[in-house]
Write a structure and sequence with these properties.
globular; FAD/NAD(P)-binding domain; 3 domains; 422 residues
């Protein structure tokens, strides 16, 4: 009898894992079932460009089942709960799936209702999020109508998917209003609960400087407690206020709902605790986690999921073979940051090393922490790599799970000014 692998989630992580393991095992060795609530696979980095009219939602959406290799069973259904003792998954449609190994890849969900007033007056009228296809499309229409006033980009709380995306939106908004000839009529404000523009000091200094250079106000340590859509203001827990005419919100995130209905599986936010180096869950040895569904101290970004996938594929294989797990995942993350006007930054870091200047993936390569046209082109090209290499489970030459150290300029290397334009 073949062993049974069930993967919950048919997004980036679930698709990568299913395809990689299908290439490794024949159908007579391992059955693979992927479960997702819908058959709509969204290229999430593309949502950033929808509000500015660079792409349409239809351009970045494909059927989930079409991304899976042959002999992978795709089930379109909602997960009701996981019984970690009985090793079963209950589906809303009434079926129960037995598993020998479970991979949780259901990502993170938005929780706008958790912030007082956010979804009341003004929601989808003057308050939007570009983190969903519907929100991004509605925001595109709102921006096209906008002829001046106060635009506020607000991160309600962390963690969030793609932590740099709100900054990218701010930079692209600056370019968008400049190109429309109304930048002098628009006040742009970036509001974050962090004490700087980003979580890592070197990158935060660079990004904060760029916000200032572009005339984007930075409001830090702002923990949003409520939103007053009628009055056009966000209010922090310490009663500070930031007024807005148009609010672009990045709501609180949590894990999938079924996690909370599955005793012993998740934490208070429904993320799944896991070993940060092996990706094995702390609930049971035969449960693994990938991507945004975990509580790992790594960025909730697509590159992280890709790098995790290499290690997790090996660990599922080792677990099935009764071997010691590979503890080599180092928290590697890699992000392009669009800065507007056809340029972008690139950052590369892991659990121990913050983003540094230099080049990726070696001494000759893409410039790190440097505003350049090459990085912008790299971001645009990544969509093709995503659909045709990453999701099918192919290795990308020169790009490995472990963070490369060659090419990075450490503080004691007398590195050049990281913020210099190329």
């Amino acid at each position: 009898m073949p062993q049974r692998l069930v993967i919950l989630g048919g997004g980036t992580g679930g698709t990568i894992m299913a395809n990689r393991l299908r290439k490794h095992y024949g159908a007579d060795e391992l059955t693979i079932t992927v479960v997702d609530r819908d058959d709509t696979h969204v290229y999430q980095p593309g949502l950033l460009f929808v509000p500015f009219g660079h792409v349409h939602v239809g351009d970045i959406v494909r059927p989930r089942h079409r991304q899976l290799h042959h002999h992978i069973d795709f089930r379109e259904d909602e997960v009701s709960a996981v019984d970690i003792e009985a090793q079963t998954v209950s589906l809303a449609g009434g079926d129960t799936l037995d598993y020998d190994v479970l991979v949780i890849a259901t990502g993170a969900r938005l929780l706008p209702d958790e912030t007082e007033g956010l979804t009341d007056a003004g929601w989808m009228e003057r308050i939007f999020t570009f983190y969903t296809p519907e929100g991004a499309a509605a925001l595109a229409e709102a921006l096209a109508r906008f002829d001046g006033g106060r635009v506020v980009v607000n991160v309600v709380d962390l963690p969030i998917k793609c932590p740099v995306a709100p900054l990218e939106f701010s930079f692209l908004a600056d370019a968008y209003f400049t190109e429309r000839g109304i930048r002098d009529k628009v006040e742009l404000t970036y509001v974050t609960p962090l004490d700087g523009a980003f979580t890592k000091p070197v990158a935060s200094a660079t990004l904060s400087s760029m916000l200032g250079d572009k005339g984007i106000e930075l409001v830090t340590e702002f923990n949003t407690g409520s939103v007053d859509g009628d009055g056009g203001r966000i209010v922090s827990w310490d009663e500070r206020e930031v007024p807005f005419d148009l609010l672009v919100t990045i709501p609180l995130h949590g894990g999938a709902e079924y996690v909370g209905r599955s005793p012993g599986l998740g934490d208070e936010l429904d993320f799944v605790p896991a070993d940060e180096h092996t990706l094995q869950s702390k609930a049971k040895p035969n449960i693994f986690v990938i991507g945004d569904a975990s509580n790992l101290p790594a960025s909730k970004a697509g590159s992280v999921t890709h790098f995790e996938g290499e290690v997790l594929t090996e660990n599922v294989r080792r677990f099935l073979a009764g071997e010691e797990l590979d503890g080599s995942y180092d928290g590697h993350a890699n992000c392009f940051i669009e800065t507007g006007f056809g340029k972008a930054l690139l950052i590369d870091f892991n659990y121990e090393t913050e983003p540094l200047p230099g080049h990726f993936p070696a001494k000759v390569g893409m410039p790190l922490l440097k505003n350049s046209r090459l990085n912008h082109l790299g971001k645009l090209m990544f969509e093709s790599v995503y659909w045709h290499a990453l999701l099918p489970g192919r290795d990308v030459p020169g790009i490995a799970a472990a963070m490369p150290t060659s090419g990075k300029e450490h503080p004691d290397d007398d590195a050049p000014d990281a913020a210099t334009d190329a």
